[in-house]
From TrEMBL:
Gene: pal
Name the UniProt record assigns to this protein: Peptidoglycan-associated lipoprotein
UniProt KW keywords: Cell cycle, Cell division, Cell outer membrane, Lipoprotein, Membrane, Palmitate, Signal
Role according to the record: Part of the Tol-Pal system, which plays a role in outer membrane invagination during cell division and is important for maintaining outer membrane integrity.
PANTHER family: LIPOPROTEIN YIAD-RELATED, STATOR ELEMENT OF FLAGELLAR MOTOR COMPLEX
Source organism of the structure: Amphritea atlantica
A Pfam short name: OmpA
Length: 169
């Protein structure tokens, strides 16, 4: 019994340390050819505007639920942050609500690499949500890698639509 409490306390402490370290990120990814690509740091501000939509499910339905990424990148695009803040406000105001973040990649790269890339993309979206007040217990991460393309094709247009994270309530 006491060991379980110590384990829970340790897990909580590690979660707090992880969340504190995730308020700004410098991500370095390796592309499929093995060269390093460094994404610039991303800083996300917490939700503080009470007029921001996202407090009801009806408000959330008007927000984007698919967020796209550049090739071999995990950096959340600036235009996605506003919609994610709306989702965060809804989730923070409704602690019983939860969201599944489904990470995806295009077909380039190995199956294993794309599974990991999809997971890192979902984690990047999760960081934005947690920084904006969402409890990590409300978020579930799933990576499909290249397994569930939204567009079948072997060109940049198709690949761009398959590099995404989808929010599912």
């Amino acid at each position: 019994m006491r060991a379980m409490n110590i384990g829970k306390a340790t897990a909580l402490a590690l979660t707090v340390v992880w969340a504190a370290g995730c308020s700004t990120t410098n991500t370095t990814d390796t592309d499929t050819m093995g060269s390093d690509t460094t994404a610039p740091a991303t800083t996300t501000q917490a939700v503080s505007d009470s007029s921001m939509s996202g407090t009801t499910m009806a408000d959330v339905k008007n927000l984007a639920t698919v967020f796209y990424f550049d090739f071999d990148q995990t950096q959340v695009k600036p235009e996605a942050v506003a919609a994610l803040r709306g989702h965060a406000k809804y989730l923070a105001d409704n602690p019983s609500a939860s969201v599944v973040l489904e990470g995806h990649a295009d077909e380039r790269g190995t199956r294993e690499y794309n599974m990991a890339l999809g997971e890192r993309r979902a984690q990047a979206i999760a960081r934005v949500l947690t920084v904006n007040g969402v409890s990590s217990s409300q978020i579930e991460l799933v990576s499909f890698g290249e397994e569930k393309p939204v567009v079948m094709g072997h060109n940049e247009s198709s690949w761009a639509q398959n590099r995404r994270v989808e929010l599912k309530y």
